[in-house]
Write a structure and sequence with these properties.
The protein has one domain. Helices cover 16% and strands 29% of the residues. Strand 9 and strand 10 form a beta hairpin.
């Protein structure tokens, strides 16, 4: 390590600046969403088997809920525009706008050049958790998803039920794409129910036992027509390991609800208005 300069303390003491202040974003009208949700009926249910993945579709203006049903289990969520796999969830920009973890009122944003809300979190039974003594929080947009390539790199051998593979198989089954083509559309995830953070001393990404229990859920409002894929992570509650069959794993339930009328004043968001000139 290099020697610290004489003004090291002053440099460290510089106050931080929020990179993307979100005061100009139109806040989610949770009251209006809530009134629409009160009239909704269930129109679809999908059970995601342990160490496997599955797809579901949600129309703009509907709600979808991901629930723990048998035991503590985390899930990896991908979202695409239903008619265009090129528009997909952008975890990095969601993180930049809302923080490392999301909860009620936060939105899941799509990738460039679209950059519009795909879904809004309207309910979260784990919002009580906040931040623990280790800096852990729930529902992160910092982890990439467990995958067989990193497993091969770090541990050797092949494991086919990492979340990346689960999502790839699910998307292939839903679209008819060959699995090697489908996996190119799989992207960084929302880690549903996962409790994570960064160590203060080394800055390493950590996981710990999720506080989720049967009956807990996170619910979203679909801002656009969506194709979703969810993996029930092989790490179970991610208290010790992943990318293996060692952890106890449980199914996850996805339910879709259709309201009688859309929220008052709501309309599906348009794609980002930037001209795409890029100075040329």
């Amino acid at each position: 390590m290099t020697n610290a300069p004489a003004d090291a303390a002053a440099r460290r003491a510089v106050a931080p600046v929020i990179v993307y202040p979100d005061d100009s974003l139109i806040p989610a009208d949770l009251a209006s969403y809530g009134r629409a949700r009160a009239t909704a009926r269930k129109v679809e249910e999908v059970m995601i088997a342990p160490r496997d993945g599955g797809c579901f579709r949600v129309r703009a203006g509907q709600f979808f809920r991901i629930s723990s049903v048998e035991g503590p289990q985390v899930g990896d969520l991908n979202l695409w525009a239903a008619d265009d796999l090129g528009e997909r969830f952008f975890s990095g920009k969601t993180r930049a706008l809302h923080g490392t973890h999301v909860s009620t009122g936060d939105r899941l944003w799509s990738c460039l050049p679209y950059l519009r809300p795909m879904a809004t979190v309207v309910a979260d039974t784990l919002d009580w958790y906040g931040a623990d003594a280790f800096g852990g929080r729930v529902h992160d947009v910092i982890g990439t998803r467990c995958d067989p390539y990193t497993h091969r790199l770090l541990d050797g051998g092949e494991y086919h039920h990492c979340c990346h593979s689960n999502l790839s198989r699910a998307l292939a089954a839903a679209t008819g794409l060959p699995v090697r083509e489908a996996e190119l559309h799989v992207h960084d995830v929302l880690n549903v129910f996962m409790c994570t953070g960064f160590t203060r001393d080394t800055g390493q990404y950590f996981m710990k036992a999720s506080p989720v229990r049967p009956g807990d859920y996170i619910e979203f409002f679909a801002e656009i027509d969506l194709l979703g894929a969810l993996s029930a992570c092989p790490g179970g509650d991610c208290s010790a390991t992943h990318s293996s069959d060692a952890a106890a794993c449980y199914p996850l339930k996805v339910e879709v609800f259709a309201p009688e009328e859309p929220p008052e004043g709501w309309a599906p968001p348009q794609v980002n208005g930037y001209s795409r000139g890029h100075g040329v």
